[in-house]
């Protein structure tokens, strides 16, 4: 089984961090290729960043043709995940979604800890959209930019520990999702410090991808996730034009 | 007051149709300029289309500098509206949101009628996200592609009338939002045929934009809609790089 | 266009304050007449006050015959708004509803600041009924009675600033609705002090009324807002008997 | 124990019907006095009717002084119930609320059957406000006016049976609330015909009132249901002025 | 009328305490028999305890044959209440449900105060399941085990007072449900100390049971609460085998 | 990795069917042992069945000591799953939960198809509890008892196909969860006939269990899922007494 993990941003050292988490999480027979979009922001910390990241993320899927059995979108917020499911039959898993499912399976009440304060609304809307507003009891932010999350590991870990303690003590969170792909790999240290399950969202998504592939499930083409109708899309290369990419829709 | 109405797709005859509705709806002192993105799909009928439309929509806002007092995103689903509010201080109104507010003000229970069957989920999620799942009692689709909505006016009107009648009779809808910018201008004919308020979403958004401008309100920069932090965004032109566009943030 | 703004209470100096806000908010071609019910409480601070205010508010609409194009009910909580939509074809806008729509258009998360502590439940239920429980993140009260809100402007402003700061700092509110018609006109001072959009709910409702009139939309008479059936209503004057007032239902 | 049952309208033969149901439902030691407001509509079939009914309902409570231990508001929709709880310490029970609690206790999924089609929204909002949108699976209306519900008993029963059968077969309702006080007394006949619990809402409310009185519970005066502050209320008699009626607030 | 009150646990002195509350709450003509399951935990403080308590609770109902007119399950969380409604026609009332209905009837916003911190999720889910997440504004726990709640009355009362004060001051709760059958009888003392309605959940359930019996309502056998189909259930005695117990289903 | 799959009922041929699905779904290195409780009903088709099944299910976990790395509860409705998470550190996955996560990952709108009509409420409540009421658009039942689901495979498959077609055509479901462990193995046939993803819930849960184990996550012992406090539980064997079973709580 081959899974392509797509970093949501174009920050290469984060791609490497994500790869480490993904490789560590995979089953032995799974092959993981971690990549990053050709186009898009260095980090996703705003809706603007998120929306400019999506075409590049989708391109990564289109370019893959049939080489992969599943895709992971490694950016909390799951940018473009519905579109991704339209353009391929292969399962596409968002790390936000995956981490919340895992949290649900090990804790009655959980929270999300993440980076910049301004992402509070993005996090909250992602949870609301998924339907877990009654399960998620805490969203807390360090205020540390995504890039520093990658480069200043110890400071980031300390800050996450601090808000994690508040999530446990004040909000009664019993597990925590790491709400940024850049935090991949910090789960073990934080779990040790905080004493509750801390979920590496990238790792969670790899496991979900393996699960869906192994179940031989593919994206439903019944209605919502049908292949986009052929039509000109200005300003995008030929390989991104609907009707031009195969969307492996004849495979099923 | 100058309002820029941005067609969500790159289909020029739809831009013209939107312009007609917008011009018809404006107050005398309002100047409307209707435009379409340089890049993006000919119609928005899938999540894929929607996400590839967003960068072009946002670019239209960035390129406007300080020339406009407000923006309307003329695509039901309000693609990119949160990001748009980050990159400008000027009000940005989505036509979905606007039409639902208008529906709420004239009817206790309302519905949305729109194009392709596959957009059902997109419509439903837009309503859920806004918080009106208990007010919207009907979503019905004609199955007619967006482009034909523009080019085959009579067939479209007939088909909308037909699903409109079902929405009234079976779902007890008391007003209907036209769930596609391409349906702009059909509200009067449908209102006459159906006997209930039918809301031209583009017109609704123009009025909302005029309202917010007249109230001297601008996008809150307190947290979520702060200007995106400067950072490189690969594959996008200089004028779309955060830190490069002014975001008229010094105006307030 | 002529809009009648109806103060929800019978406190004349508040009617004047509301009028100032409404006049300041109107477009040049709009004519505003602000009035107050002949009957009803001096201020609305309880459910009892609210329910006794409603017949007088409705009477103001009935007495207007066809002189006005729209009505604004200037009392946060929108007392009687559904009934008002039954007895006239002309749009009727509540200031609570209007202010929340405006808040949604400029902020991701917003709050309501208002008068007496006891109104907390009334405010909360109004928001829940509208569907915005997931958008409204803060409701805070000064404890100052409505009448003093009008008469002690500086103390009121200071108190609102104080709870506004808490709403921003603790609840992460990014815009604030002024939850009482008596606070009309304080938005500019508070906006300056707090640095986030503060919404004068009366002004917001005037703009919504202008919008709906301009869109030529009227109350749906399909089901819920049909004209009340003729029947005797004891204790109310002839002009308030269903069947006696025209409800301008023959206009459409 | 003395309970005052207040018909929501001023239709005397309905008051008698309500009284019969209430008397039949009371425990032997309970004394029931059924009454109707001096002012208000002959029937409640619209929001307009409902709001004009409320002052008269509240007056019935005020005039009762300390003669009663509890009040029942006999109109599905519970008009004015929050205000009623402000002006007295004595429990005030709405028949809508009461019937829904009873339905919850005997059925997993239940419905409401009622009169005019136009009341659909009023019924739905009452259920949503209470929090039972996930328990109520059916709302169906006969189209028969309230007054005929009282005067044409057999036709009403037949029509209720018919929509009741649809509620069971199509919506899988397992119990039905009679959504109008005028239907009091029809529960037994309908229960026999339909084979599921049919709840006489007046009877249900009498039992709830007896329960609360027997528990020695009174309306909380902590915040929301505090006695209204003294203030002039124009157009209402002296005995309805806050500060003039005792609200038996010194009793506790 | 004969009501069987079933303590959810097997702690005899708690059964006695429950009996005192139940006897104090009953109408003169009601006969109350309070009992405890033969099997089950000494106290219910975890999901494990709760699930092991349920078979014994159900057995108490089955063994009662036709001797009782209604049953009360005296454990906050209402363990097994849906199953109980399947195996008998007689009304079965849970004390959680009953106390919440009573709270709704006397207060706009209420809370639950209870025992061990770990039960927070159980309490919250019970409220969510019932549909009152928007009415319940506070859940607070003393940390005192259930057994001590019974044996250390003064310490328990002091601790409840303390969290009750926080519920009032910080969460604006206006009434409080005692979230454990072991707290039965403490309502009067707490009501005196806290000044708001405090609801003895056992007493509340007795009143609800009397109400339903008096209304001649029984569990709907239309769908969900049908008698369980005959089938072998290993490890349970003959009298608990479906098909063997009569479920008094022939009575209706 | 060793996973114990626990059939929720005591019907041996269903245990075998579950085992086949589980074995087919496991990764090569996973060892699956499928078992059934010593005590409990032959099938779970009512709340009564469900609650009597739970102690036996929990016993299977307790008896396993440290031999297994995870548990699957193979009964749609996930009976006892919260309690199971208290008594072991090892992940416990319910098949309902697992199948809904999988459905979410491959379809925008999905449904559940299952056995007896009476289980409608159980299914609906399970979905509501999880938070997916806005994702699940269809619940349909064949009316075929669980046991026949196992023994009459072809009739069951035909009946499921039939309701599946309705779910797709009328409710616009785009994937279907098989809502009964007895349907394990029918997913491929149904997928072929219906053309949309059909999810074998047992297989889904095996994959989720493998995922959580591989992520080294265990049940949070922070609050809700703490090991039950030692206390006597009458009528249950020594090995089921809290304090006697180790709950492998010292492993972490």
TrEMBL record, chains A, B, C, D, E, F:
Chain intervals for the UniProt region annotation (Disordered): 233-252
Pfam families on file: Asp_Glu_race
InterPro entries linked: Asp/Glu/hydantoin_racemase, Hydantoin_racemase-like, Iso_Racemase_Enz_sf
EC number(s) from the headed UniProt entry: 5.1.99.5
Family, similarity comment: Belongs to the HyuE racemase family.
Reaction catalyzed: D-5-benzylhydantoin = L-5-benzylhydantoin; a D-5-monosubstituted hydantoin = a L-5-monosubstituted hydantoin
UniProt-recorded Gene Ontology molecular function terms: amino-acid racemase activity; hydantoin racemase activity
Full protein name: Hydantoin racemase
Superkingdom of origin organism: Bacteria
């Amino acid at each position: 089984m081959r899974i392509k993990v797509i970093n949501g941003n174009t920050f290469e050292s984060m791609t490497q961090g994500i790869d480490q988490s993904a490789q560590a999480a995979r089953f032995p027979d799974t092959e993981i290729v971690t990549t990053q979009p050709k186009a898009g922001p260095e980090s996703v910390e705003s809706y603007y960043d998120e929306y400019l990241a999506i075409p590049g993320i989708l391109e990564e899927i289109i370019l893959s043709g049939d080489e992969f059995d599943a895709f992971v979108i490694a950016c909390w917020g799951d940018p473009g995940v519905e579109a991704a499911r339209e353009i391929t039959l292969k399962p596409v898993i968002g790390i936000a979604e995956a981490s919340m499912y895992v949290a649900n399976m090990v804790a009655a009440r959980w929270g999300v800890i993440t980076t910049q304060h301004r992402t509070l609304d993005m996090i909250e809307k992602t949870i609301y959209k998924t339907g877990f507003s009654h399960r998620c009891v805490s969203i807390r932010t360090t205020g540390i930019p995504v890039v520093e999350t990658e480069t200043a590991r110890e400071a980031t870990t300390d800050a996450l520990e601090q808000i994690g303690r508040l999530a446990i003590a004040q909000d009664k969170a019993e597990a925590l999702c790491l709400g940024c792909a850049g935090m991949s790999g910090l789960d073990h240290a934080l779990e040790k410090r905080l004493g509750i399950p801390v979920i590496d969202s990238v790792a969670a998504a790899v496991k979900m991808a393996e699960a869906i592939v192994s179940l031989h499930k593919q994206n439903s083409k019944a209605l919502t996730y049908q292949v986009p109708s052929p039509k000109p899309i200005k300003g995008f290369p030929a390989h991104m034009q609907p009707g031009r990419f195969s969307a492996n829709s004849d495979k099923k």
